[in-house]
Design a protein that fits this description.
homotetramer; alpha/beta; TIM Barrel; 2 domains; eight-stranded parallel barrel; 14 strands; elongated
């Protein structure tokens, strides 16, 4: 930690900083410049550095406090430099093979899920996505079929031999959803629902953790740290678009985040071009971009009849478009040394 | 609802739109231009307009769908044009008197809360704020004292005759927190925690609903609608800053949102200049601005010793600064025809 | 400057940093921690610190470079701690009296300007605003009357004894505009037009420098530094809203920026609630907020017939609304110890 | 144009809207709903629709005005549905071959440019980039070598048989820069410098138009329309990152913008992953993503010794990294049916 004071700071003020740092267990280095004094707190004491920094920042004569050590540990790249692979049954996420999770935004009926799941399987996909509990901006919108939806997913999964990923949005539902799903999903609006993160961390289920659309990469990794800290290392990050001023697309998929996360963390990362764009016409281009940028997989909305979808139709691919995208993705995966 | 098609759209395509609209209960108006065809769906059918719009948007020949009726109803200004006043004991929020809720970010000890609460009372404040359950970006940061913190708040409130507002972040805690608090608070990271919104809606407790730092005004009002829809009309909105590209301040307090909400909704609105700036030096200026802009109250962090605070010290006012701010606020309140 | 290296950095790598710092004239302080090495470059050498930092950042083993001295000097608060006052004729901007600059967005005709100017004068205003050269997002929109517009402004100014502020958008026009105007204005889209900044800096005319809607406070102050560096100290900053994700308002007026600029710089600062909101209905509330937050003045669009305006009608106040706002502003100014 | 009124609007108010629309040459369609009245203005009159909309918006009883026709024409996809190809000598931008423009951010010396240019040529590149006039946020930073820099570029171009792209930032320099360069570049900070756009439009030189980092796609296309309207159709759009709240990267490259522009406009589009990320380590991943998303080319910063660069070293690739990236790009180009 580096504490910046004005060069005119009194000895008493410098002392006030150093004695606190020492009390927390830091060793002290002082560097006096013409305009600023920099007090370095060195060592890795057993205190929360973010909190200590805030304490110092509230001293009126402290100009700034800089933290130079990352606030997350278990999910940091340094913790597992070779990268981690999350295994779900016989599917590996984070390995050489790109994993595509596809399906409808919401589970509406057995027939709808079955038709989509068959297409996913036909295209070589192994993981079916579909929402039974749906977070909706409006209380008047469809909120999902709940447990009935979970049962439909489970039935289709059994019939076709697929795996299932589905969202959980309430800490009280983690157990229930875990009975039906192979992978839990934490949605963008719940990335900061810390109680839910902890509950999912206590489970051992693999979890797709979507980035909050207003969250920085660091906050996202700290959310993953919540899960890891409770003992669940099976975390798959998912970039799904951030909110910017651009109105043409619903969100802006942060393509930079893919290589950035690869640098900062050992966790696998997938991308969701459906929510990241909000427009099915540009989903294929952005899906290919994500793979080219190094993503380990994709989460894509596919619907047999998007114009009848109860949710997010505008961003869902029709089955025929999904099938041709999968062909195109194979070439891109190969171009970056991977397979699909 | 207005559905925009290219002027070259076929009759069959126009028919596909109109027959859907009719099936949902809309009456049809068609207006053909040189470049576009506009199909108006008129009437207020008992369907969710947002969902119907999404269905139409997913038709490949539909260029755009525009919704011209607001998606919220119970919290809309039209629902109660005279504005609503939330009563908590003998305190009225939304009336002529500005209400200041002040106290520490986190409850740390009985002594700390008591000292701050005395200052709040001395300055004429009636409502004490303080967090017992704390949402923290890092799992290694202080998470609050939990029920012990609630008890401290309750004890101080009884001793000094104040009212208490405190955060609830888990639907499972609503009942517990309601036993101790007079007003529940939903934090910025939980504005989209729809299960929590519903649970709080089922209670009859007054609730401060903070704006998500990545949420639009419309999404915020829809979150309020979730609470209102469950039967709880006692909602106080709180503007607490949105996330922008500006790095000097932690967040950007959206001052425009205050008159905007007054125009769009009948609910009272308060402002939180502490979180909205993240810097105690500029809190007083922004607090005065919020009142001048028409806010019904303020939520301010005050700490007897910010440099010892376990959380958010950099944005907490010292007691002496808080007391002088209260004096300044009186003059501003009067300038806009209100009292403090 | 602080250069952060991994604690595992080799002696050769440390040497590569220190020898560069020494060559630039810095003295060296090294602080070795468990995870990081911090190399401090101390002193104020005659090099550009931003550039030196970039050079070091491009060394593959350098993790980060932190600059702790502000990159601007002439406009920094430290340069003139008491604050500066810009005098235009007998009007002082930055003194105890709030200065309101009002008028139409665009000059359309002599009659329009005269009618508005009379209202400005009647309300006690001394400075008339109006655009003769207009930056328009669309090439098909009105681009202003050019020199003819300047002449109209000049004529009305002479008749009524007002001062005039008007925009200049091309370095080739600085001389021309200076002949007619008392204050030059640099618009939000030209804040980064460095050639224009330099040209205006060479003139001695007072200048209103609007914040770029995508610019940080630091970049804005650096733009002011461009002007000051050329010898023109008569700079008035103008906060006019930044671009955020909120769609209800055209821009988000950054109210935090007002006290922030007061802390960082000695320059006077005014606010433009017309562009900062884009909606005349909320202009008065935000105008009052800006004054309460410490702004030294306002730039407001007033039009006798907004529904006939060629530009920006939706954000222009009618004359009667402007007159009543001025009354309300008097009370707010007084509440914060100033006059109008 | 669609004008939205409250259903309670009086006949006189409806009349005020319709008579204006008729005066501008629109035909009228009225559609009365339960909550709103929608007045459609149909036809394509010879007025500026943006301005007319603003006039109507300023009527106090008008709730909203929606424009459903795009405000740009010459650069719209409809104008040339097959897409346009910009030819520079024998190089085609927008055709099947991906075009890479590479070189140093700033021209520093003949030796530096020559060394980099040789690498560009060796990798099969045809276009050399390099800045002689540099827009710098700080007035104390390197502003470029000016005409001397142009001469160096010209000399190297002649020696190696390359083409040159370089920035022009002042309308007064367009003629000078055109003498040396094959392609003019308008930088992100000048996208809204309308005088510069017009001046470049009057020239017939091909121009790379970078997106303003705070500009929407629509504003960017309107800036292109400024150039096209003056008679210069040789426009190459360049996505170079937008400003968001994410601090890890300097900007956020908007990958969605690539397929979005392909849908909305016929102009070729390239991407600048160097400025779009600000970190050389993630440049290769984002470069590959841009090609996978459909970009027609790349603008990449390459420097023989980034740690000695006077500008933007942190985002410049070393020559060896550039050469290996070019190999990787070949595979990605092929995967999307193109060549490099």
């Amino acid at each position: 930690m580096l504490v910046i004071l004005n060069a005119k700071a009194s000895e008493k003020e410098v002392k006030e900083v150093t004695s606190r740092l020492e009390a927390w267990g830091y060793k002290i280095h002082i560097s006096k410049g013409v305009e600023k004094i920099v007090i370095g707190g060195v060592g890795v004491p057993e205190v929360n550095e973010l909190e200590c920094a805030d304490v110092l920042r509230s001293l009126p004569f402290v100009e700034d406090v800089l933290i130079i050590v990352k606030p997350y540990h278990l999910v940091a790249r340094e913790f597992r430099p070779e990268g981690s692979v999350v295994k779900v049954d016989d599917v590996e996420i984070g390995g050489p093979k790109i994993v595509v999770m596809a399906g409808p935004c919401s589970v509406e009926s057995y027939e709808q899920v079955l038709e989509t799941a068959k297409a996913v399987k036909q295209a070589g996909g192994r993981i079916l996505r579909g929402g039974a509990f749906k977070p909706s901006t409006s209380p008047y919108s469809f909120q999902g079929l709940g447990e009935e939806g979970l049962k439909i997913l489970y039935q289709v999964k059994k019939e076709l031999g697929l795996l299932v990923v589905t969202e959980v949005m309430d800490p009280r539902d983690v157990e229930l959803v875990s009975q039906y799903a192979d992978i839990l999903q934490i949605g963008t609006r719940n990335m900061h629902n810390f109680r839910l993160l902890s509950e999912v961390g206590k489970s051992q289920k693999p979890v797709v953790l979507k980035r909050g659309f207003g969250a920085t990469i660091e906050e996202w990794l700290l959310a993953a740290e919540y899960i890891a800290k409770e003992g669940n290392p099976n975390i798959i990050l998912c970039e799904r678009g951030i909110r910017t001023f651009e109105p043409f697309t619903r969100f802006t998929l942060d393509i930079n985040a893919i290589p950035a996360v690869k640098e900062l963390s050992h966790l696998p990362i997938i991308a969701d071009p459906s929510h990241g764009t909000g427009r099915w016409k540009i989903v294929p281009a952005v899906a290919k971009a994500a793979i080219a940028a190094g993503a380990d997989g994709l989460l894509i909305e596919v619907h047999p009849h998007p114009e009848q979808a109860l949710k997010d139709g505008p961003q869902s691919l029709r089955i025929e478009n999904f099938l041709s995208l999968m062909e195109e993705l194979k070439a891109v995966a190969q171009a970056v040394g991977r397979t699909l």
